[in-house]
């Protein structure tokens, strides 16, 4: 009887057991990396705390932009940590060893997304609780809706980080993707100026950037007591973008750095 070497699982055939095993491994690694934990959990809270007192002499300013920043800060920190952590796995040879096993790319990406998603839940709870019940962020809508958008934004940052890590050859290059991927969205999302007052080309670009819908969803919670049609549209766009980017991350994941 002839024997055949084991083959890697198909890239788009995720297994629940393999995904959970990958997520557990990532969480064990994070437990021994206090700097990354501090960056993901504490930095968004620290930024919100500082901004609350930066605008202390301008009543109402923190309320008008605090909700938007509550979604933007988690997105940025999760993007940064996820992209570097995934790249570190590849440069150390861990990804190559894992993908030589019966572990598909989709299993790996889903496991990372699940692990960092759990961290994103804690991060969103901390940041939302701080903003609402310590810093006094005044919103009209439900705090649970605010938490939902903050969580989706953090998951979007995780997905973007996993995706861009495939195109970086070093941790320094991974950080360099932030100006290319995050900063244009930050400038065009409507935080600094209403999107409908921008130059038409810039407004059209902002209409296809997921951070624009994240900020719009936060604004809906800030102004409306009930769930609106625009809010549903905005959160669906953010969620779909996160799923699409995760799928692209699985498709572009490489075993090693070239």
UniProtKB/TrEMBL annotation:
GO terms for biological process: response to antibiotic. Its main location: membrane. GO terms for cellular component: ATP-binding cassette (ABC) transporter complex. Residues 31-256 form the ABC transmembrane type-2 domain. The keyword Transmembrane helix applies. The chain crosses the membrane at residues 37-55, 67-87, 108-132, 144-167, 174-193, 235-253. One of its GO terms (molecular function) is ABC-type transporter activity. PROSITE patterns: ABC_TM2. Signal peptide: none annotated. It is found in: Cell membrane. It comes from the Bacteria. It is a multi-pass membrane protein. Keywords: Antibiotic resistance, Cell membrane, Membrane, Transmembrane, Transmembrane helix, Transport. Belongs to the ABC-2 integral membrane protein family. This is Transport permease protein. It comes from Streptomyces pristinaespiralis (strain ATCC 25486 / DSM 40338 / CBS 914.69 / JCM 4507 / KCC S-0507 / NBRC 13074 / NRRL 2958 / 5647).
């Amino acid at each position: 009887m002839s024997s055949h070497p084991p083959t890697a699982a198909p890239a788009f055939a995720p297994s629940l057991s393999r995904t959970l095993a990958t997520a557990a491994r990532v969480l064990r690694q994070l437990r021994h990396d206090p700097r990354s934990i501090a960056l993901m959990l504490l930095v968004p809270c620290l930024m919100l705390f500082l901004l609350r007192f930066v605008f202390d002499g301008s009543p109402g300013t923190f309320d008008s932009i605090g909700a938007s920043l509550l979604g933007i800060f988690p997105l940025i920190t999760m993007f940064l940590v996820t992209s570097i952590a995934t790249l570190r796995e590849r440069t150390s040879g861990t990804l190559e060893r894992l993908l030589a096993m019966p572990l598909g790319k989709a299993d790996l990406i889903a496991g990372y997304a699940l692990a960092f998603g759990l961290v994103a839940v804690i991060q969103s709870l901390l940041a939302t609780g701080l903003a609402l019940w310590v810093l006094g962020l005044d919103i009209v809508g439900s705090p649970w809706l605010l938490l939902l958008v903050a969580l989706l934004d953090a998951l979007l940052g995780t997905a973007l980080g996993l995706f861009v890590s495939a195109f970086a050859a070093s941790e320094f290059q991974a950080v360099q993707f932030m100006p290319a991927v995050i900063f244009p969205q930050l400038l065009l999302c409507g935080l600094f100026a209403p999107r409908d007052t921008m130059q038409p080309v810039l407004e059209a670009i902002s209409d296809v950037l997921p951070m624009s819908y994240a900020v719009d969803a936060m604004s809906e919670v800030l102004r409306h007591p009930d769930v609106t049609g625009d809010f549903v549209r905005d959160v669906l766009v953010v969620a779909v973008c996160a799923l699409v980017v995760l799928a692209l991350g699985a498709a572009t994941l490489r075993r090693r750095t070239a």
